[in-house]
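Sequence, please.
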């Protein structure tokens, strides 16, 4: 991969204005500044603007285009998977739990590594390319769901017998 070195030069518009005024006879007031394509346009006027307009102009109306950062989206193909439940997990995220994960992770004798491998295998079987974060997401949400179901299904009569 070839490296690229970029040099950034920032010049205040006031400095550009001063340089132009030194070289040319210009009207008293800089009224507007625009960037059109690769050209910087400065508007000068002999008339003073109102106080409100001066405040706006002092901020220099330079139109800047901001590039949106490209972020990889972690979308997983879940087509044809039966939804078991939707809930808000302990991190406050709304999530859906799918049947293939519930079926695979119900065996509580599995180690954490085995559970991760199972989740990864299920995701890859559906033509996904899961990242470690995605694997962790599906694993934690499914385990949290299974744990909440186990708490709901605990027999109440055992607590009464202990009393």
């Amino acid at each position: 991969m070839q490296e690229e070195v970029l040099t950034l030069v920032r010049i205040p518009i006031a400095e550009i204005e001063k340089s132009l005024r030194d070289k040319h006879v210009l009207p008293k007031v800089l009224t507007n500044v625009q960037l059109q394509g690769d050209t910087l346009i400065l508007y000068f006027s002999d008339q003073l603007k109102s106080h409100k307009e001066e405040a706006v102009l002092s901020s220099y109306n330079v139109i800047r285009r901001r590039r949106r950062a490209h972020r990889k989206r972690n979308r997983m193909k879940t087509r044809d998977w039966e939804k078991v439940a939707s809930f808000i997990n302990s991190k406050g995220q709304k999530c859906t739990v799918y049947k293939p994960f519930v079926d695979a992770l119900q065996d509580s004798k599995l180690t954490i590594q085995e559970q991760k491998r199972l989740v990864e295998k299920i995701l890859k079987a559906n033509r996904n390319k899961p990242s470690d974060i995605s694997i962790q997401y599906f694993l934690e949400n499914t385990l949290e769901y299974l744990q909440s179901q186990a708490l709901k299904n605990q027999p109440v009569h055992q607590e009464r017998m202990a009393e």
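Residues 132-152 form the longest helix (21 residues).
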